[in-house]
Amino acid sequence: MKKNLVVIGYGGMGGWHAEHALKSDVVNLLGVYDIKEERNELARSKGIFAYDSQEAVLKDDRVDIITVAVPNDDHIKVVIPCLEAGKNVICEKPVSMDSCELQKMIDAANKAGKLFTVHQNRRWDVDFLAMKQIADSGEIGKVFNIESRIHGSRGIPSDWRGQKAHGGGMLLDWGVHLIDQVMQIMPGKIVSLNCHFSHRTNKEVDDGFNLRMYFDNGASAYVEVGTYNFIAMPRFYMQCEKGSALIRDWREETQVVKCKAWHENDVLPVKTAAGLTKTMAPRNEVTTDTYKVARPASDVHEFYRNACAVIDGKAKQLVTHDEVMRVMKIMEACFESVEKGQVLSVEL
Prior knowledge:
The protein is an alpha/beta fold and 348 residues long. The protein folds into two domains: 3-119, Rossmann fold, CATH 3.40.50.720; 123-298 and 329-345, 2-Layer Sandwich (Dihydrodipicolinate Reductase, domain 2), CATH 3.30.360. The protein has nine helices and 16 strands. Strand 11 (243-247) and strand 12 (254-259) form a beta hairpin. Helix 4 runs parallel beside helix 5 (99-112), helix 5 (99-112) runs antiparallel to helix 9 and helix 7 (170-185) crosses helix 9 (321-340). The radius of gyration is 23 Å and the shape is elongated. It starts with a strand and ends with a strand.
């Protein structure tokens, strides 16, 4: 039997959740609620039931799951009352303004004995899944460095995402996804990190950032988001013990070069403008295999399928409290690194 879902916050992502719920095989969209009446009217115009208040949602015994899609600073104000009312809760990201708020939500969920999870929907991005597939397979060896970038050229959207009070900025908006993806690929504990913000189009919050993380096993990861990049750099670049993998654009297949043999005794120097070099001489098919990996299959409905299965006691939670807390603490360390202008030693 399908679970009854209500979406609180019928804006951009709230509309996305409602639209996908209408196509879901595990949830039934019972209705929505937004503090802005014009959004409730918009839902009604589409044939979607809209509640008159949040209290009405919480008092409805038919509601199994509430998805919270309000601005970041209001998450805790909605999530905890929903949990206390005995509802299972899915929250948009970033789940909170800091780890203290997040812990209060986790405590409320544990006390209520209800599902509380975060909509890390970009775990179903095909570019991420391709990189994780290659890393997990070990086909080009153990990962020792990964670079993840998202570049655009339109600045921050002109809404609350550009305002500090509402938890705006690219670290919280996009960084929460890219950091979470890297954590799914890279094992080990982060021992230090360094972060820098850009303010090309917005002085109040970061409109871009770059983050370098170093792990206790010697590996490293680089995450970058830019909103003033008119030429985008590759989406993913991964270095492994036996080769490299590259995704130039999320719509493209993954390019892999696997090293079959390290030495070439007959390497010829390459002429460059300033002289000769053997070090940078290109490889050939004798020592490398070059191939492409097809885009893996992906279904975003798996997130809600998992949530419903967890509620029924039939599955483990895909996006766990520990994973969400780790990402939150990494982002807090990023803010501290920026504020102090230095590399931070951490245990994350």
